[in-house]
Amino acid sequence: MINTATVSLNNGVNMPWVGLGVYKAESGEPTKNAVLQALKDGYRSIDTASFYDNEESVGEAIRESGVPREEIFLTTKVWNDEQGFEQTMEAFERSRQKLGVDVIDLYLIHWPVPGKYKETWGAMEKLYNEGKVKAIGVSNFTEEHLENLMKEAKITPAVNQVEYHPKNAQKGLREFCETHGIQMEAWRPLGRGDLLEDETIQQIADRHGKTTAQILIRWCLETKVVTIPKSITPERITANAQVFDFSLTAEDIQAIDGMNEDLRYGYHPDDFPYDK
C-alpha cells in the first residue's frame, strides 16, 4: 500500500500527491486494467479527460474495484471544442454520465482556448457552486492566462496541471502558483522516456536504491508539485507509487534542478493549434 499523503487545496479539499494518469491509454481493457491495478496498489487519485475517450473505462474500473467512491479523487477535463458556458455545462454532464458518478472531485479546463476560457470558467464556477464538483482548476495555463482569468473570476483555480519535469521546471510559474494558493500538478513527469535514461537521474537512483522513475516522481513531491505518472504496465504502476519511503538530499535536488532547459515535449499553451 502506498502512503495516502494528500495536499489541502485552497478550498480545503484534500488531493493525493500521486495519482494515475490515463492519457493515451486505450479505452476498454487497457484503461480498465490499469485503473484496477492502481487502486489495488493503493492509489486513490485517477486523472482522465473527455479528450482521452476512456472515461467509461475509468468509471467501470472504479465500480469494479470495491474501493468506496468517497475514497477516490477523480479528475476529468473539458476539451477545447467543448468550451463556452453552455457547452461546458453539457460537456460536464457527458463526462459525469460516462464516468457513472454523481460528483467529480476535480474538473479542469484542458487548455486556455483564446476568447473562450473565461466563459468556460464561469460554467466551472456554477458547477462548483451547485456542488457538482468538489474543486475546479485549469490545465496548461501560463502566468498570463492565470492573471487574466483571476481579474474576473470569483473563485481562484485550485489546481494548474502543466507539463513539468526536470527539463521543464517552470520555476516562475511554480512560484506564481504558490503565491496565489494554486496547487501545481505535473503531467508527463517522466518526460518521453529519455529522462529515465538520464545519467544524473540514474546516479541518484543508484544511490537511493530506487528506479529512475521513482526519483523523477519524488522530485515532483520534493518541489511540492502533485504528479500523475501514466502507465498501463502493472509492475510500473506498482513501482511508481513507492516514493514515500525515502527523500532526496539537497544535493540531489540541486543536481536535478540544474537539468532545466525549458524543454517541452508538448505544446507551449501559446502555440497550441486551437483552430484544429
UniProtKB/TrEMBL annotation:
- Identify which residues the record assigns to the active site: Y52
Recorded GO MF terms: oxidoreductase activity, acting on the CH-OH group of donors, NAD or NADP as acceptor
Q: Boundaries of each NADP-dependent oxidoreductase domain copy?
A: 29-260
Give the keywords, sorted. NADP, Oxidoreductase
Q: Which InterPro entries match?
A: AKR, Aldo/ket_reductase_CS, NAD(P)_OxRdtase_dom_sf, NADP_OxRdtase_dom
Q: Which organism is it from?
A: Sinobaca qinghaiensis
Q: What family is this protein classified in? A: Belongs to the aldo/keto reductase family.
Q: What is this protein called?
A: Diketogulonate reductase-like aldo/keto reductase
Q: Which residues bind substrate?
A: H110
Give yes or no: UniProt keyword Oxidoreductase: yes
Q: Where is this site: Lowers pKa of active site Tyr?
A: K77
